[in-house]
Amino acid sequence: MLLQRCGLFIAWLVLSLAARVQAADTFSSIYITELLAENKGGLADEDGERHGWIEIHNGGKATVNLVGWFLTDTRSNLTKWAFPNVALLADKPMVVFASGKNRASLFAPLHTSFSLAKEGGYLALVNRASNAVSEILYAKQSADVSYGSVRGEPQLRGAFPRPTPGKANASSGTGFAPEVKFSRAGRNFTEPFALELSCRTNGAVIRYTLDGTLPVSTSMVYSAALRITNTTQLRARAFKEGLLPGPPHSEAYLNLFTNVLEFTSTLPLLVMDTFGKDVPVSESRTFVHLSLHEPVNGRASLTNAPTLTTRAGYRVRGSTSSGMPQQGFAMEFVDEFNQEKSLALLGLPADSDWILYAPNSFDPVMIHNPFVHQLSRDMGHWSPRTRYVEVFLVRGPGRVRDTHYNGVYVLVEKIKLSKSRVDIERVGAEDVKPPKVTGGYLFKFDRLGPNEGGLNAGGAGMVYVEPKEPSIMVPQRAPQREYLTKYFTDFQRALDGPNWKDTTKGYRAFFDVEAGIDFHVLEVLSGNVDAIVLSTYFYKPRNGKVTYGPHWDFDRALGSTDGRDDNPRQWNTGPFFSGAWWPRMFSDVDFWQQWVDRWQELRRSHFSVTNLHGLVDRLTGELREAQPREYKRWGFQPRGGSYQAEIDHMKRWLSNRVDFIDGQLVQPPRLDKEGGGGALLTLTATTNATVYFTLDGTDPRLAQGVISSNAVAYGGPIQLKADAKIVARAHNAKQRQSGGPPTSTTWSGPVKASYTVGR
Length: 759
Hints:
Largest sheet: 7 strands, mixed, barrel
Number of domains: 5
Number of strands: 43
Shape: globular
C-alpha cells in the first residue's frame, strides 16, 4: 500500500513539475516561493484553524515595504488583496494565510480575502505599479503537499511533500534526485589524483562547477573521472527528468606545498581558503572554505585528515582593531545555499557564528580575553568560551604555503541569543503584546555601525544587537520599540526620582543589581580602559530586568601596552564609574557596599592571587610552542625581552591591582573558634576598625550604613553556650575610598559561620 501511494505521488509530481516560471519573475526582489492550497495537518493560524497559505521571499539586498503591494488569484483584478504597512527584510520569508478572512492588521497574522483553489488556479504578487512581479499557474493540489521554487534555482518549480512555511524550501527527500557521492572526501593533498562522482539513481545527470557557484540545470555535465592537480573547489548536483534537483554537495581539495608538510603544532590548525576570491572588508561577507586539523597524539598537522570542513562566510571585524596588521575575523558557517549552519568544533556547542580574535600588540601575552572569560564563567555567568588555534589564510589561487601562515588566533563564541550562549527567549516579529513584548533583547554600548541609529531612551544611547536594527525598525515591530523606549525612560526616571533607593520603586526594580555588580567587579579587576562605554553588552529577558554581560574585548586591559591601564594602583584605569546609570547607582552607599561585599567574597576564591596566577600559567602554557611563531610573524617586541617577561608583567600587575583595591577598603574580620564544653569565639580586625557581630544570622549593618540594634561591638573572646549563626563586619568610621566611586563605605564585607555547641 505504501509503495502504491508513493508511486501515485511520483506520478502526480511529474505532472506538476513546471519547466520554467512566468516571465514576470526576476527573483531579485519579492517573489512567491511556496504555496499550499489544501492544509489538512500543517500550519494553523491564530484561531487554531488550518487554511491554505502563501510564502513570499525577499531575494534582494534591501528591506522592502509592502504597503501598496497586492496578492491576487484573479488576472482581471490584480489589486484584490492589499498588504498593510509591513516590511520584509532582505533574504527573509513571510507567510500569508490564504483563508478568505481578509485580515490586514499591522500587528497580527495576515490573511488574504481569497482562498487558494484545490483544483488549481492562478496566483500573483503585484507591486505598487500594478505589475505582476511573481506569477504561478498551479495544477490540482494534493493535501499537505506544497508547490514552490527550487532552492538555488528558483525559476524551477515543483511539488514538495514536506511543506516548510516560513523556512527554506526542502532540497531532498521524496520527489528529489539523490545526492551526488564523491569517491574522496575533501582534504589536503600533495599528489594528483582521480576523483569520481556517482549517483544511485539511473538516468540522473550530474552537473558540477569549479568556480564556487551552485550547480544549475545548465552547468557542466560530469561524464568521466576528474583529475585533481591543484587546489580545487568542486560542487555537484544531480538532475533527473520528473524529479526536483537533488541536494548540492561540495568538497574542497587543498594542494600543499612542500614547505608546510613538516609543520606541526600542539594547537589545532585552521586553514581558511578563499580560492582567490576578493579580500574581505569589514562591512561585507566573503566566501571562505574552512578545514580544521586537530592534534592527533598531541600534534596537529596539515597532512592529517581534517576533523571539520565547511563552507563559511567571513569578514574583518573590530573597530580600531580592524586596522591592525593581524586582522581578526567574524565567521559564519553556511550550507550549500549560503544559509547559516550550526556546527560543533573543538568541544564547543554547535552554532553558526564565531569570532577569530587576533592577539594584537596591546596584548602581547595573548591571553587577556580567555583570562577574563574564564573568570566570568567561574563566577557563574555565561561568557564566551575560547580555544587557541593557528591559522593559515590563503587569499590567492594555488597551493597552501608557509607564507600563508597568519599566526595564533583565539576562537571565541560570538555573543548572541541562543540556548548555548545568552540563554533567554528571543522576541519574534509577532511578539507585540505583554508578556512577550518584554523580551528578550540584547544591546550594547559601543560605537554605531554603518547605517545604525541605535536606541536613545532615558538619556542613554544603545546599539541594537538582537533583534538587529534593520529587523526591529520594520513597521510591524513598532510596539517593541515603543515598549523599550518606555522601559528605559521609566528606568531613568526611577533612578532620578525621590524614591530612587527604594527596592520596589527605585532603580532596583529595573536593574539586576547582583548581575551588574558581578560584571563590574571583573571589569575593575581587569583595568579595562574601555569598560562601560565601549564593547559593553547587556540584555533584557522576558519579564526581566536590565542584566549586564557578557564580557567582551580585553586587549587594552590587564597591564596592556595601551598606557592607560599601566598603573594598577588607581581606580580609573577605565571609566568604571561613568556611562549611563552607573554614576547614580554608585552614589547609593548600599549599592557600593554590595560591590565591596562581592569583591571581598571573590578575593577569598576566584580573585585570590594564587588562582589568578595559576590561570595565567595555564593559559600561557597552551601557547608556549606557538608563541615564537606568532612573535616572528607579526614582529612582536615583548617588554623585558621575552615571553616569560610578559607573563611576569601580567602577574605583577594583577598582584598590585588586588592589593590596591584591598587597601582602599575596610578589610573583613577573621573568625577563630576554640573547642571545649562550649566554644570560644575570637574576632580579629585590622587596625582602627571595630568589629560588630550578631549571633542570630542577621546583618550587623543595616541600610545606608546604620548599625543594627542586634549588633554587638566585639570586646574580647566570646563564650558560645548555644548554637549560633555568626555574621560579623569590621567598621572604620575614618575609612574612605578616593579617586573612584562617588561615595565611600566605612564597612567591610561580612564573614559568616554557623556553630553547633556541644556536638
